[in-house]
Every structure is written in C-alpha cells, then in structure tokens.
Write a structure and sequence with these properties.
CATH class of the largest domain: Alpha Beta
Number of strands: 6
Strand order of the largest sheet: 2-3-5-6
Structural class: alpha+beta
Bound molecules: iron/sulfur cluster
Order of helices and strands: HEHEEHEEEHHH
Shape: elongated
CATH architecture of the largest domain: 2-Layer Sandwich
Largest sheet: 4 strands, antiparallel
Distance between the termini: 95 Å
Radius of gyration: 26 Å
Length: 201
C-alpha cells in the first residue's frame, strides 16, 4: 500500500521542523530579504581598487561590462540589466576587488532598463609622441609597485612612476617631432614609438 505523502518520514520530519522553526520562504517584498553571505547580486565597481585594466570586460560572457577610451579618460560601465550575476568579473579582476558582486538583488524598476548601470572613469597615460593610449595611470602605478626594483627594466614605466612620485619630470615632445635622438628614449613612449626611437637614434 502506498503511504500518503505527508506520512512519509522525510516529509513528516520537514513538516514538523517547519512548524517549529517557521517556513523557509521569506516575506519579501513585504519585508526586506537578507540573502546569504555568498549570494551573487549586483556587481559594483570600487573605483579606489579598480585600476582600469579592462580584464573584466574580456571575461564578461554577456557584454554587460564595456570600456571606452575618450581623449585622456577610460570609461568603464557595468550594465545590470544584461548582467547574469555569474561572478566572472570578480573572479578575474586584476586587483581582486575592483569589481565585487554585492548582495543586492532587487533591481526591478519602472524606469528604463538602460538606466541600470554604473560608470567609472580612469585617467589614461598616452605616448608622448603619437598620443596612442598606453594604459590607465592607476594600472601603471599598480604594476610598478608589484615590480619593485624591476621597474627599471621598462623605461616608460620607470619614467612615469618616478614622475608620479615627484622624483623626475615627464618631458613631452612636440607633436611633429619624430623620436630620433638618443635622449628621446627617455620619454614615455608606446612600444611602436620606442622601437622607432631605438632604431633611429
Ligand atoms: S557578473 Fe558575469 S555577467 Fe555580470 S558583469 Fe560580471 S561577468 Fe558580466
Ligand atoms: S581592476 Fe578589476 S574591475 Fe577594474 S578594470 Fe581591471 S578587472 Fe575590471
């Protein structure tokens, strides 16, 4: 004979537990719901910890994070309406805390879905000669600190870092000038211009 569902030991145990402890479900939206600690909610940039490297843009499977270089600024944007809360961005962040998934999940809005975003700006370092983007300044400082004394192995990085620390002055080249003198090698240059400076000097 088939035992009625409610009398099955496992279900009976759960029913008694629920009677004593109360139901598992919460009263959301009538009462705020606090998700468990490792819940993956809305990802948020932390501007003080993000260096603007763009690794999160590369690994986002839905294209929810975008990057745009405009003049001397890099704009990073995360769109919550197309994010699937997978956590890839946080797991692959260079600094491990530049973008972090919060526990916020209630993103319903009566406004436009395009308004669900966060943008941050990072200052860019460009080649002294051709103005090609090298990297965000925060990223160069982060790399220089990681390298320690090995920063001397990269002239542009070393010059930029020293200028930041007020140990030297970054010298700019007139735009029409082609790096051709030996002294031009001591400029913040992109890899292409550095090659030219080395070959022509
Ligand atoms: S959680 Fe996933 S989908 Fe959302 S922004 Fe990060 S990588 Fe993209
Ligand atoms: S530091 Fe992290 S959050 Fe910032 S751009 Fe790089 S990967 Fe993205």
């Amino acid at each position: 004979m088939k035992i009625p569902c409610l009398l099955q030991p496992r279900i009976l145990k759960e029913a008694i537990k629920a009677l004593v402890k109360g139901p598992y479900t919460t009263k959301f939206p009538f009462k705020p719901h606090k998700p468990f600690e490792r819940f993956r909610g809305k990802p948020e940039f932390h501007p003080q910890d993000c260096v603007g490297c763009g690794a999160c843009v590369q690994v986002c499977p839905t294209g929810a994070i975008s990057l745009e270089d405009k003049d001397d600024k890099r704009v990073l944007t995360v769109r919550w309406d197309i994010c699937i809360f997978c956590g890839n961005c946080q797991a692959n962040c260079l600094t491990e805390k530049g973008i972090v998934l919060s526990r916020e999940f209630d993103l319903a809005t009566t406004g436009k879905r395009e308004d669900l975003y966060q943008s941050i700006e990072k200052e860019l370092v460009c080649c002294s000669f051709c103005k090609e983007v090298i990297a965000p300044s925060d990223q160069l400082i982060w790399v220089a600190k990681k390298l320690g004394t090995m920063v001397f192995s990269n002239t542009s990085l070393m010059l930029f870092y020293f200028a930041q620390e007020n140990l030297s002055e970054a010298r700019g080249l007139p735009e029409t000038e082609i790096p051709s003198l030996r002294s031009d090698r001591f400029q913040i240059l992109c890899p292409k211009c550095r090659r030219e400076a080395v070959l022509k000097s």
